[in-house]
UniProtKB/TrEMBL annotation:
Residues 38-203 form the Thioredoxin domain. SUPFAM superfamilies: Thioredoxin-like. Belongs to the SCO1/2 family. PROSITE patterns: THIOREDOXIN_2. Gene3D superfamilies: Glutaredoxin. It comes from Psychroserpens ponticola. This is SCO family protein.
Length: 205
């Protein structure tokens, strides 16, 4: 445990401030966070989903919060268990920080009901108030994944909600719903970089 904490605390952000992102190429835009340009750049739109407690989760749930978003499904046998384990690292790192939340969207909402998400959360040790697992309208979730978070990496490929959404990416969102980073949720080094970048983002006015 001590070694893990040391690794986290010694990791520093690559930059003094984080860039903004506005499209799927994830080209960084270096803006003053207080500028008008930063204010009008792409942000996550309004949404309405349901979490593992059966509660409504909207963009207002994350008002004045930094959060990390990903996309998963409870029966995934491949990458999802490792992604969940790395999200758990984030939960533990920011357990006492009320300004940091986690948001995992089910990409199989037709089968991931509230009760199934609740059971999954209990099995994995997910803390409800820190980490929201959400289900809801499939089209809304897929539109969020592809058009809001740009979570998939298949650039230039037109897809609909009939095409399965599967991505290992974690997306960092600031208090104004702007995208500030994307990370490989399977890679421990990338997750440690995400932790460092969250701490950098916290220092932003």
């Amino acid at each position: 445990m001590g070694c893990k904490e040391s690794t986290t605390s010694n990791k520093t952000s690559r930059v003094a401030a984080l860039p903004f992102y506005k499209e799927a190429t994830f080209t960084p835009h270096w803006l003053d966070a207080t500028s008008e340009a930063a204010d009008i750049i792409h942000r996550i739109p309004s949404f309405n989903l349901i979490n593992q407690l059966g509660e409504e989760v909207t963009e207002k749930t994350f008002k004045d919060k930094i959060y990390i978003a990903d996309f998963f499904f409870t029966t995934c046998p491949g990458i999802c268990p490792k992604m969940t384990a790395n999200m758990m690292v984030l939960q533990e790192e920011f357990i006492n920080n009320n300004d940091i939340l986690l948001l995992s969207h089910s990409v199989t909402p037709e089968t991931d009901s509230v009760s199934i998400l609740k059971h999954y959360a209990e099995t994995k040790g997910i803390i409800d108030r820190k980490w929201h697992l959400v289900t809801g309208d499939r089209k809304q979730i897929y539109d969020l994944g592809r058009q809001a978070y740009f979570a998939e990496e298949d650039l230039g490929v037109n897809k609909t909600e009939d095409d399965f959404l599967h991505t290992e990416n974690f997306v960092l969102i600031d208090k104004n719903r702007h995208i500030r980073g994307i990370y490989n949720g399977l890679n421990k080094t990338s997750v440690q970089q995400l932790i460092a970048d969250v701490k950098t983002l916290q220092k932003e006015n």
